[in-house]
C-alpha cells in the first residue's frame, strides 16, 4: 500500500505531495492529523493519505522509512473509507510492507486494529476530527515504536534488526498529504478535504501539534524551522498554506481537488 515519501518506490508509481518535508537528525515525531475521506477512483490502484513519516533518505536517490496515518485506498481495502494504516521499508526483505502483510511489525495492543476504519471523520465546513500519531525510538532496544491517540497508547514496534540505514536515527520526516499509484499524477485523486489549503480551518485539511524528537532522551520539541521545507509538487492540483510555528509545535494546511476540480 503506502510506499513512503521518498522511499523504495518502484519506478511505475506516480506520487504528488503537499505538506512539510524536514531534513535533520530525528529520533521520532508526533502530530495530530485531520481526517477526511478524499475521493479516489475504485479501480485506479491509487491511494490518498494524510501521513506522518520518518526515515533515512539521501539527498539524491531513494531511502527507507516508516510511517502511519489515515489513508483511502479502495483497491487495497475494498472500500472508500478512511482507514488507519502503517507502512515501512523492510531492508531485509527489500520490499515495502503494509500493516501485517509481511513480517516486521510486532503489535502489542488490541485497542487499535491496523487497517481499521477511522471514525468519525471531518465534515467540510462542519465538525473537525483528528487522530494523534507518535513514532519514537526506544533508546535501550533501538526498536521503533508506534503510539496512537491522545493518550499515546503503544500499538507496537518495528524491530531495529530489519533496518540498517535507520538503525540508530533518521534524517528525514514528512507531515502532510500525498497521493500515489499508477495514475496518481496523470489522473489524480483528492488530497485531504478535496479543497485547497487557502480555505483554512473547517474547509482544508491540516496537520498540527507537529513535534520532533531530536535525541535519545525522547523529549518532544518544536521542529527547527530552518530544517523544514513546505512543499506542493503541483499547486494547480494541491497546495499548502498557513505553515508556521506556535508556542510548542508546527502546523500546516494542505490539500486539493486533484482531477475533481
TrEMBL record:
Source superkingdom: Eukaryota
Domain Neprosin PEP catalytic, residue spans: 7-261
Pfam family, one: Neprosin
Protein name: Neprosin PEP catalytic domain-containing protein
Organism this protein belongs to: Oryza sativa subsp. japonica
